[in-house]
Amino acid sequence: MAVASCNNVNIKFPGDLTPCPTYEACTSLGQNILLGDDSADMSFIPYADDPGFDLVPHLEDYQSFSWQETTRDPDLEVIVIETAKRLQSRHGLSLKQIDEIEDPHLPLHPLQRGLGENGIIVNCHNRDFPPWPNGPSYPLDLYNPIYEGKGLKFKQKNMLQYFCPRRSCITSYCFIHLEHEGTTIHIPKRVPPLIKDDMLEAAIQHFCGQKCFLLGNSHSELEPSAEWTVTDQERLDILMKYTPDMAPCSLASICQKACNKVYQRRTQSQSDPIEKQIRHPLCSSTLQFSGMTSYYTEWNTPCFHDGPCTKESGCQCFQNKAYCESYCHCEQTCPQRFPGCRCTSNSRSKTICNVEKCLCYHNNRECDPDFCRNCGASLFIDTNVNTCRNVAMQMGYTKQTSVQKTKWGYGLYLEEPVKRKELIAEYIGELIYTPTAMSRGLLAHHRGRNYLFTLNDTVSIDSTYAGNTTRYINHSEDNPNCLAKILIVNGEHRIGIFAEQDIDTGEELFLDYGPEFFLQEPGAQQRSGPEGNNFADGPGPTPGPENITIWPVQDHSSDETYDDGEGTENHISE
């Protein structure tokens, strides 16, 4: 055996080779996602080789182990799909009716599930099926609804079942609200017109073309029916059902018809609105709104019922002592809807809706463009123009930040200056229920890093496994330069990180976590920061419902008066 000799080579590494601070891996999110509760099946045993972890209490939060569950049987799936094909083709049963069959001799697995859990059809959509031996082939509507021969109204009704109309989403297959409120979405009711024809004409200042309705010649005889197909008329009817005050110029663009002809059919199919006075009581003798305080105590779902929003009608908003929001299905004139602020964008003050005088700001709400009509809540924030300053979170106006090493792990630094009261970022994570918050609290207690933030009595935000860079903000009891506030944004609870003072570029952000965060053994030394910062000489926070909240929220007294900016004082009831 020959032995080869080699020369020694010295390699010099530039810089420091110290290991990076301890941190938790995290999936980046752009908005909160609803998880609800963790699975009752434990996928693995955490800290199995760590004798310091008390495993027994953690095991009590689960019902079984995932590795003991039966795995998917591909042969059984083929049999189930073939059975469904024959039931549908021979007997005319729908997939929903097949799922409802309860027969011990026909153990059909669920073909369809909710948005958060797939049935066999979705699971089998990515696999190939062998031909059924010695038998005919039956078609099966596996995935998409059948639209052939159906009109626009039918298509719209089916598509609206999976569309989330909330201002924070406006997307299909929303996994936050559709999953929480159920997959059955109520079809919106017809919206009554609020603008008369003469007011509509006065509001439009420019012609859309040579056939604009403003030029006249629109009150002649209706066009022959050949000019308007059934689909054309259905499209206009749907638009008029939900947007009756849309300008004829916009209707013409969508319907691809002449503006004057669209206006002609619009006026003959719709009468002028009946004037109704919208009554928004500032205080109520029958209902004390929890929305007038810092935030609701429960997750509020939109109301959908006949009649006014009262106890007798079963209004969920009334029962939860919450205001009806813009996504509720009650009338726009409903007196239980939040009244919005009375601030005006032409005010000389540049702090529009950013002071206690604003009703929305006073009650820890961002201005809602559907309710706050005069402050410019629907416009982009312009520092040179007097517009609403209380819409930063819903508009996504956050500051540039970067994660850097600090004395105790990682920290969050500003990459641009920020003024006092300005939004820095939104605290984002998974929306979880209390049982899961308790279960995860045991793990957080052991590892000494906790990212749980109570949102209300039902839901908490946890950025342990998914979140954004706000989880890197460190603690400072003596010199915090920002604070966390729970706000109601378009009817939803969201957490914003706001500057408590003017902060320059390059400065680190600090929050006061509060006394409940550092619950340690007596004599244990406290160190700053949840991200990457172990609690020296002691464990992390003790889990429990009394201390799930990590960072304090700023509450405002609601039993005082405010000035709406027009010299009028209004009393706010608790």
UniProtKB/TrEMBL annotation:
SMART domains: SET. Keywords: Methyltransferase, S-adenosyl-L-methionine, Transcription, Transcription regulation, Transferase. Residues 399-514 form the SET domain. One of its GO terms (biological process) is methylation. It comes from the Eukaryota. GO terms for cellular component: ESC/E(Z) complex. Residues 282-392 form the CXC domain. It holds the Pfam family SET. It catalyses: L-lysyl(27)-[histone H3] + 3 S-adenosyl-L-methionine = N(6),N(6),N(6)-trimethyl-L-lysyl(27)-[histone H3] + 3 S-adenosyl-L-homocysteine + 3 H(+). Residues 521-574 are annotated as: Disordered. The keyword Cell membrane does not apply. One of its GO terms (molecular function) is chromatin binding. Signal peptide: none annotated. SUPFAM superfamilies: SET domain. Gene3D superfamilies: SET domain. This is SET domain-containing protein. It comes from Amanita thiersii Skay4041.
